[in-house]
Amino acid sequence: MSQVQILGSIPNVSDVTMETFADALAYAVTNIGGKLTPYVDVEDIRGTSMTIDKIGGLELRQLNESGAEVEESAPPLERRKYTWDVYANAIPVYDDQIAELIEDPSGKFVTKLMEAYNRKLDSLILKAVEMSVLTGKNGDVVLTAAQDGVKTVDASAAFTYEKLLELQENAINNGTSDMEWIFTLTGKENTGLMNEANYLAGSGNSLAGNFGSMIEVNGTKISKAGGFKGIHYAAADLNGTNRLIREDASYRYNIAMCPDAVRLGVGLAPKLEFARPSNKHLTTLIKFSCGVGYVREEGLKCQILKTTK
After folding, report:
1. Which 3 state secondary structure label does DSSP give 219?
2. Alpha helices in 204-299 (DSSP H)
3. Per DSSP, what are the bridge partners of residue 104?
4. What's the DSSP call for residue 244?
5. How far is residue 84's CA from residue 293's CA, in Å, rounded to a whole number?
6. Environment class of residue 227 by beta-carbon count within 10 Å: exposed (0-12), middle (13-18) or buried (19+)?
7. Which residues lie below 8 Å from residue 119, measured CB to CB, with a gap of 6+?
8. CA 183, 189, 191 angle in degrees (round to 5)?
9. Pick from 68, 2, 298, 15: nearest CA to 174
10. 307 and 133 in contact (C-beta within 8 Å)?
11. DSSP secondary structure letters along 117-172
């Protein structure tokens, strides 16, 4: 992934201190990742109209007689276009505070900055699973998630054992069951599965043993269910903020995917700029910006889990 560019200078902060800060930031970019970024391809790209070319399905055909003519098939090369977004923020900091932020490279500023950056990357991965993608030679053919093979499991009545089996069934039918699947869940989905396991265990249901063996719990959180690794996110608060998992008025749309289902392209290296605004006295403006492309590589490696909020 691209390293962070640091531009500008700060009064009364030495070059050595800035170099130390730059090293700390470079280390953070490499070592502080998002929850979903380890499961996707991340590459450096240039321009805002970049595409990826991938090999689609390829099968051999049987020849029924010696010397039979080999029929041509459609070219397996498939092109997909990145969707491109640019994000930025500007934070005014008083001069008596900026030195403390910069001179303590182990402090929270670098960590918080990278956490915010990786939350944005996670949100784009979640978005890429559900969005339509642009395909075709010129990147002008719209392919919806459903047309691309993304299955939706409707667990709006309840996230039960049967819905977990449906996720597994889709993975098997799509030929991806041998891959390491992950799925997102908020506290409600976590509780729903835990309650389902407890209910079956207390009911004497013959499924109890099967379901219990499918669930791995780390403390109070489900770490794995049915071979799907659990990735936990907070639900939206009463104001609808802090939301990464998409929600509407009634439903929440978690995702499931396996590695390389989504690709990110960092086209504008994260940039951190220190500026002295003319209209603010004794203040340094910290500007952070980045440009990211995102695209779903293969719909058969993605699923949507619809639950009730």
Report:
1. coil
2. 207-214
3. none
4. -
5. 4
6. middle
7. 34, 244
8. 130
9. 298
10. no
11. HHHHHHHHHHHHHHS-EEETTTT-EEE-TTTTT-EEEEESS---HHHHHHHHHHHH
Mean pLDDT in runs of 10 for the chain (309 residues)?
74 79 78 88 76 71 68 70 90 82 71 87 96 90 96 94 93 94 94 76 58 78 92 80 85 95 85 86 87 93 96
Read off the pLDDT of residues 228-272 as tens digits, 9 standing for 90 and up. Answer: 999 999 987 766 666 899 999 899 999 999 998 999 998 767 888
36 exposure class (CB count in 10 Å sphere: 0-12, 13-18, 19+): buried
Which domains are assigned to the chain? 5-54+76-139+263-296 (3.30.2400.20), 141-261+299-308 (3.30.2320)
Does pTM surpass 0.90? no
Question: How is residue 296 written in tokens?
Answer: 């779903």
- CA nearest neighbour of 113 among 29, 6, 57: 29
- The residues near 105 (Cβ < 8 Å, ≥ 6 apart) are 20, 21, 23, 24, 25
Q: What is the dihedral of CA 12, 14, 20, 25, to 10 degrees?
A: 50
The token pair that represents 6 in the structure block: 């640091």
Q: Across-strand partners of 155?
A: 307
Instruction: Write down the pLDDT at residue 107.
Output: 64
The closest of 233, 236, 256 to 118, measured between CA atoms, is 233
Q: What pLDDT, in 10s, does the model give residues 22-47?
A: 888 877 777 778 899 999 988 888 76
